[in-house]
Amino acid sequence: MLRSAMKATVIVSLKPTVLDPQGMTIHRSLASLGLTNISDVRQGKIFDVSIKDGASRQEVERLAKEVLTNPVIEEYRIIWE
Amino acid sequence: MKFGVVIFPGSNCEHDCYYVVESVIGQPVEFIWHQDTSVKGFDAVILPGGFAYGDYLRTGALAKFSPVMKAIGDFAKQGGLVFGICNGFQILAEAGLLPGALLRNVGLKYVCKFLHLRTETTDTPYSNILKKNQLLRIPVGHGDGNYFADPETLKRIEDNGQVVFRYATASGEITPEANPNGSLHNIAGIVNEQRNVLGMMPHPDRSSESLLGSADGKLIFESMVNALVRAG
Amino acid sequence: MVSEELLTQHNLTESEYQKIVDILKRQPTLTELGIFSVMWSEHCSYKSSRVHLRRLPTRGPAVLQGPGENAGIIDIGDGLAVAFKIESHNHPSFIEPFQGAATGVGGILRDIFTMGARPIAAMNSLRFGPLHKQQNKRILEGVVGGIAFYGNCFGVPTVGGEIYFADCYSQNPLVNAFALGIFEKDKIFYGRAHGVGNPVIYVGAKTGRDGIHGATMASAGFGEDAGAKRPNVQIGDPFMEKLLLEACLEAMQKGLIVGIQDMGAAGLTCSSCEMGARAGTGVELELDDVPQRESEMTAYEIMPNKKKEKEVFDVFHKWGLDVVTVGRVTDDGLLRVRQHGKVVAEIPNGALADDAPLYQRPLLPPKSIISSRLEHYSFLDGCEPAMIESFLSANPDCSRLLKLAVSSPNLACRQWVWEQYDHMVQSNTMVGPGSDAAVVRVKGTKKALAMTLDGPAYRVARHPREGAKLAVAESCRNIVCAGGRPIAATNCLNFGNPEHPEVMWQFSEVVDGMSEACNFFGTPITGGNVSFYNETFGDDIYPTPVLGMVGLIEDLSLVTRSAFQDSGDSIVFVETVNRLVGRIDLEDERAIQNFISSAIRDRLVKSAHDISEGGLAVALAECCYSNFQRGAIGAEVRVPSHLELVKDLFGEFATGVLLSTIHAAELCRRAEQVGLKSYDLGKVGGNRLILNYEGERAVDIAMDELESAWRQGLPKLLS
């Protein structure tokens, strides 16, 4: 049995300079709910990653950088659990 | 002269491209499986439209890891013609063979319709029998066709004349109304710096016979034949 | 004896349970109860409708396969055959519009390609509650999004369909998905478990809880707990299904498979039983070998040839799919299921299918039918009351009425919808959405296929039998106007609760009307689907039969569009002598169809458009709007003076057609010859639509203005 001892969360979002039509649409709809203090919404993706016991964190770094993110438009953060 | 049409899992315009090359412009053509590691023997490679890997993660994001993409990268470096249509364009951009990226349409919806493209340059193997500013009626069908590049990249591809087609009105004007997806500078199709790799969101494969509403797309395929003949 | 609660949970009645005990000659196990529950559900067994469906014509010279298989099949010559069918996914689409509609499309595509045919076209017929209610907007947006999501990714063009709005669908939208596939006539595959000893393999995503009770859900109406049933909705995976399509077709092409059955809503055990029953064999399954996962239940049961098991596995692996052997074909006629080394079910295959309950439910004509107020203007049904008043008030300003009509929910432009559907993939679409019938060419031949969906729900609600005849007649006329010959049809019969005698009466009447008209036009019904229990809080929907008609166009050059083509062409209006509303004279209908057919064949016609909802005036406008081939074009016509302004311009008289031509005199002469009335109304041209009546301009409106009202109608309602 493989045990997954470590978990990480990779958050991928559009770069601040890239237009986010989905986030904008969500933001535009907020006024009708009376949520007038929310000044911006940006939509992103979240990936829950499990890593084998004792494995290097570098693999998660590579996954985030080379697979999950398109560097032309996106950036990522990793949160280790 | 031999054309190849790549099949990724989830491609769905491979037969359309194959049909145009074989039956409309009458050139030899074969399919290339995405697991193949070589594109030897081909003079031009087409990456068809569709939803490679279901468009999961991002459009084109998983397809770029298919073994054939390394061979296609090498082929492009050696000057081979590589033509990405729709999802094929998205894959080429993800793979870094073309600058920029394709974002979700500004309207957030998939959009399928005929529209007009204005020819911006004839100095490519894909537009050499067209006239500058020539209008083509070619349909789009995509949910992520919103062309984006950072300002420097955008300036560079404009300065180099790498923009081949822009979305235009029926009278040839470049206006926001003519833009179906929010692409910067109404960009519909671009080439790389070497000018041998073209990516375009509209579908010439769906508009190469008048019975389908337009035969303008055929001119792009014929330009490729013309370029290959000239190159000997 | 099992508890009442257990039976209710399985949607089985006391007497059905007794029947199970009689068949098994013992008490059923829990697994067996589950199998009977699904197989004897209304959805799978047609227990309320079978006695009536037998009256439909199902045979004809071109029919290769009638009802009973995954889809009907017709011969189109050149060694080619076409498989097509329509199916409902109403209840799941109410619970979760996006996924419900998406998986509905997935289901019908599977029915087509499991027979060996490559799907080349899809259409859909949708019904929603009025859009001035917020919830209905959300359902419409979800359903359209789901259809687009699934069909676009799968790569089948959605070439047409229809959408109507009426109050009765507010809590029960209808989503009927049609698909059509093409293949070589000698390469048809059936869902049959032939060859004792052949392995049964299972391909696809893993079975989970999601789908298991899907079939029983589709057979029960919605009460207040509709929300609680949400887990029953499957999540669609069009990418996986696309891989299955390619893998199945490849394995079939290589002759590696003897039979294949989509598991659909009914699940593994039921599909095994069906395959066994059709072939007269037994099937033994090892449940332990079936992968379990709680996700979509796109799965296939496939019968490979025993010696070619490995090759089959190779094909599916090549396409990145999971494959596992889960059982064998046996010779004892039993469906035997083992789990953890024990037999948990052992049922005679034939009994499950053949001994399914059959109900002759009571029929009773309803005491009241919907009001006749909109008899002439059925398109107003589903409009806001203010709009209806505004139309029915004796205002003779026909320009204003025309603008109102074309922007009304049932007549407004559907581009907002079909622009979201890829209607061009596969590069065969000659006539796409927004026309009378969709037309796709058949590559490698000179032929094209025309197809259309028709479900005049208001008409059927007013008069079920006549409404059903109208549906058949109009769909045939649509095919004929496109240049085709109607060949065969599929039907989706959406009705209320069959335990209501009024609903069963409507059903019976509709079947009789459809049967009469299909016999008359020689267009058998080759399959389809019945959807009962379309009700919420006890209110039944309109009886809503939807007919999917398929026709053949012998030569690509005969393909005819509904829009006017060129400036200067004459506009000819042809109709039957008897002007009927909501009813039809079949002989007259045949006369007009034959007339159109021969006029197209003799190249006398440039465009042909069937006059339908909104009458003559709306039909004229529809011929003028811009399309992907040309900009908007005007027309000036003279309305014959014996006609009455509002009623005859907008009234929905059965059986009229608008033709554009350069041979007006010849067309009129031919029409008179066969006992039809014809009028040379005027000319195509200019940029205004002008209707002159007794020396005055009854309608005079700029096409830009009219088209904008028409195009903005739906987006405005949705914003």
List the helices and strands and how they pair.
The complex is a heterotrimer of chains A (81), B (232) and C (719).
Chain A: E1 4-14, H1 21-30, E2 44-52, H2 58-68, E3 74-80
Chain B: E1 3-7, H1 14-24, E2 29-33, E3 44-47, H2 68-77, E4 81-85, H3 87-94, E5 101-103, E6 111-119, E7 135-142, E8 146-148, H4 151-159, E9 163-168, E10 187-191, E11 197-200, H5 218-231
Parallel strand pairs in B: 1-2, 1-3, 3-4, 4-11
Antiparallel strand pairs in B: 5-8, 6-7, 6-9, 9-10, 10-11
Chain C: H1 4-9, H2 14-24, H3 30-39, H4 42-45, H5 50-53, E1 63-65, E2 72-77, E3 80-88, H6 90-95, H7 97-113, E4 118-128, H8 134-154, E5 158-165, E6 174-184, E7 199-204, H9 209-212, H10 214-217, H11 238-253, E8 257-262, H12 268-279, E9 282-286, E10 299-304, H13 309-318, E11 323-330, E12 334-339, E13 342-348, H14 349-354, H15 385-392, H16 398-406, H17 415-418, E14 429-431, E15 438-441, E16 448-454, H18 457-462, H19 464-481, E17 485-494, H20 501-521, E18 525-531, E19 535-536, E20 539-540, E21 544-553, E22 570-575, H21 586-601, E23 607-610, H22 615-624, E24 635-638, H23 645-650, E25 656-661, H24 664-673, E26 677-684, E27 688-693, E28 696-702, H25 703-718
Parallel strand pairs in C: 4-5, 9-12, 17-18, 24-27
Antiparallel strand pairs in C: 1-2, 2-3, 3-6, 4-6, 7-10, 7-11, 8-10, 9-11, 12-13, 14-15, 15-16, 16-21, 17-21, 19-20, 22-25, 22-26, 23-25, 24-26, 27-28
Helix pairs in contact in C: 7-8, 7-11, 8-11, 11-13, 16-25, 19-20, 19-21
